[in-house]
């Protein structure tokens, strides 16, 4: 039975006075839809959402909302003007007696409704806007980056809430795990065209690659046809001028079609330059603790970070993750204990508050005005990893066009500000990267590239993030701030951390969940063994979860490679999956051997 349409956009065109953002766009959102809205930064995702919400009027076309239905829109920068507290803003428009809905949402999203608007942070304002939308319970919710400024617990609460709602929703998010769990359809904006697939985000990347492969094939065929017709025109047109003017016009039409094809936007030309090699020991923290008044941030804590480690710090907002990193890098002193920094460290910091960016500066001045990037005597050059480069050329590496170079930073989207900050960060040699929420606002392709860059980086990485998928892809150690000042170190990324705590990480959509592999006989939580060092005990407890994860990945890769057509249709994917399978099989053998060795040592 077909579902009734909630919202219809028909023949929408929008230009903002320049090149078209959308041209002849039509789409439908139906009752019960759970849609991921994806596309590159700057492709028009937020603009399309504002058109759907009725906040931006198209130049041409029609937006029709089903009679009696309501649309709720959560924007990235809500306006709280005229409200005394966050709760006043969130409760505005609710029927009398239904303010409890805001209280429930505030508890799940972790903000204080009594907080004065004047003293509220940007993250608290966004959470209040999200609570307001959820409390109003419209038939269609439009959510623009709802997980930004939420910690992992609050993201989990929001996932549960949205998975149970009967409302339709459209979500823009960089959080793969969030989109995989919640979405059942995908709207993809690509070069002004909006495509729809009736599968959730889980299938997006395969779909995108298939579309692009078909485009490349069609473009190649058109190029060959143009070349053949052009050869005919040169060789034979003089003898058949009158008879073949139609063929000449067809050639001109093909050339016009080829010229009108919009090439895909490339990925940012990002790269990291590892500075002089640091010592093998990067950070040695022994018994460090911190408190602000009666509030204990960190109880005595030990951590050793070696060269090349990737350490993720997770925990609720306000738990002290950034404070701990500032102690580990020597920026602030612990109340007790000692931090020893290794030799020859060159630290680069990505700040989630974007404090390094002056909103009133132009992009040009933001780069040339940085003392670490300035080229003496050249106002149009920046120093990039030891080499001078024209500022516009370097901005183009990060997908900014020449017209944006003199624009103020405040005119950029959240994703563009993140790219500009990465441009500053990556111009400087470093051997210790501190990344505080680097994934906010970045598109999926840029996140993929950043992950690959970090994989090739020879230095050490300290990462604060609430993006579970990104932590899994990058981290080899996770430090969890578990409340009451307790910080605990776990081997592996987010999924490994949850497994070692005996918890089931929710990262897969309901329709694709597969039974987990049977655990190893030792179980996920082994009793502490005698005869082992502290590190060995911890490793022995962690290994069963590591083994279980590797077995699951091997099973998934084996299933993928079992397709007899894979090598013929996608040889690059076949080769990559084969390499990954070999790598995981070797890692599994090593993990099992290590587990046996430690178990034998523990039992004498």
Automatic annotation (TrEMBL):
A family per Pfam: ABC_tran
Chain ranges of the ABC transporter domain: 7-216, 283-510
Binding positions (ATP 2): 315-322
Catalytic activity: ATP + H2O = ADP + phosphate + H(+)
CDD domains per the UniProt record, alphabetical: ABCF_EF-3
Compartment annotation: Cytoplasm
Keyword DNA repair: yes
EC number: 3.6.1.-
GO cellular component, one term: cytoplasm
SUPFAM superfamilies, per the entry: P-loop containing nucleoside triphosphate hydrolases
GO terms under biological process: DNA repair
GO MF term list: ATP binding; ATP hydrolysis activity; DNA binding; ribosome binding
Keyword terms: ATP-binding, Cytoplasm, DNA damage, DNA repair, DNA-binding, Hydrolase, Nucleotide-binding, Repeat
SMART domains: AAA (SM00382)
Region (Disordered): 510-530
Family annotation (InterPro entries): AAA+_ATPase (IPR003593), ABC_tran_C (IPR032524), ABC_transporter-like_ATP-bd (IPR003439), ABC_transporter-like_CS (IPR017871), ABCF_ATPase (IPR051309), P-loop_NTPase (IPR027417), Uup (IPR043686), Val-tRNA_synth_C_sf (IPR037118)
Main location: cytoplasm
The protein's role, per its UniProt record: Probably plays a role in ribosome assembly or function. May be involved in resolution of branched DNA intermediates that result from template switching in postreplication gaps. Binds DNA and has ATPase activity.
Family of the protein in this entry: Belongs to the ABC transporter superfamily. ABCF family. Uup subfamily.
Protein name: ATP-binding protein Uup
Organism per entry: Paracoccus alkanivorans
């Amino acid at each position: 039975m077909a579902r009734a349409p909630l919202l219809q956009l028909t023949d929408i065109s929008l230009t903002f006075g320049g090149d078209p953002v959308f041209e002849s766009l039509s789409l439908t959102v139906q009752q019960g839809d759970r849609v991921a809205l994806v596309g590159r930064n700057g492709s028009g995702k937020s603009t399309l959402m504002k058109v759907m919400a009725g906040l931006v009027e198209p130049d041409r076309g029609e937006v029709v909302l089903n009679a009696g239905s309501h649309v709720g829109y959560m924007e990235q920068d809500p306006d709280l003007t005229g409200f005394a507290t966050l709760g006043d803003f969130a409760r505005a428009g609710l029927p009398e007696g239904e303010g409890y809905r805001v209280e429930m949402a505030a508890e799940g999203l972790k903000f204080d409704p009594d907080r004065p608007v004047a003293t509220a942070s940007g993250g608290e304002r966004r959470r209040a806007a999200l609570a307001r939308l959820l409390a109003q319970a419209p038939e269609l919710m439009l959510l623009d980056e709802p997980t930004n400024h939420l910690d992992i617990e609050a993201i989990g609460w929001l996932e549960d809430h949205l998975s149970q709602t009967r409302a339709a929703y459209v979500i823009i998010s960089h959080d793969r795990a969030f989109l995989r769990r919640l979405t059942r359809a995908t709207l993809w904006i690509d070069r002004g065209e909006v495509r729809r697939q009736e599968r959730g985000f889980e299938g997006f990347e395969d779909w995108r690659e298939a579309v692009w492969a078909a485009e490349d094939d069609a473009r190649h065929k058109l190029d060959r046809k143009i070349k053949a017709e052009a050869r005919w025109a040169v060789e034979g047109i003089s003898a058949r001028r009158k008879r073949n003017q139609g063929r000449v016009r067809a050639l001109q039409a093909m050339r016009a079609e080829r010229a009108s094809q919009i090439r895909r936007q490339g990925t940012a030309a990002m790269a990291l330059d590892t500075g002089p090699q640091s010592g093998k020991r990067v950070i040695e923290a022994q018994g460090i603790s911190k408190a602000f008044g009666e509030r204990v941030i960190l109880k005595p804590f030990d951590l050793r970070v070696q060269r090349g480690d990737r350490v993720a710090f997770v925990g609720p907002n306000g738990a002290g993750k950034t404070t701990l990193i500032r102690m580990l890098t020597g920026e602030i002193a612990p109340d007790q204990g000692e931090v020893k920094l290794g030799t020859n460290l060159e630290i680069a910091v990505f700040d989630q508050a974007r404090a390094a960016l002056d909103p009133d500066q132009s992009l040009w001045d933001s780069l040339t005005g940085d003392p670490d990037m300035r080229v003496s005597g050249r106002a149009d050059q920046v120093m990039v990893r030891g080499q001078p480069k024209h500022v516009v050329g370097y901005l183009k590496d990060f997908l900014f066009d020449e017209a944006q170079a003199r624009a103020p930073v405040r005119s950029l989207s959240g994703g563009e500000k993140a790219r500009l900050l990465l441009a500053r960060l990556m111009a400087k040699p470093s051997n210790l990267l501190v990344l505080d929420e680097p994934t906010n606002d970045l598109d999926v392709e840029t996140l993929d590239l950043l992950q690959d860059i970090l994989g090739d980086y020879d230095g050490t990485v300290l990462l604060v993030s609430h993006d579970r998928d990104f932590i899994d892809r990058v981290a080899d150690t996770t430090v969890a701030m578990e409340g009451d000042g307790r910080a605990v170190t776990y081997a592996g990324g987010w999924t490994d951390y949850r497994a070692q705590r005996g918890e089931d990480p929710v990262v897969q959509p309901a329709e694709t969940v597969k039974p987990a592999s049977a655990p190893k006989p030792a179980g996920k939580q082994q009793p502490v063994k005698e005869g082992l060092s502290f590190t060995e005990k911890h490793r022995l407890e962690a290994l069963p979860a590591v083994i279980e994860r590797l077995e699951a990945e091997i099973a998934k890769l084996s299933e993928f490679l079992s397709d007899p057509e894979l090598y013929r249709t996608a040889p690059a994917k076949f080769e990559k999956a084969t390499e990954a399978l070999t790598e995981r099989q070797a890692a599994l053998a090593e993990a099992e051997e290590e587990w046996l060795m430690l178990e034998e040592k523990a039992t004498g």
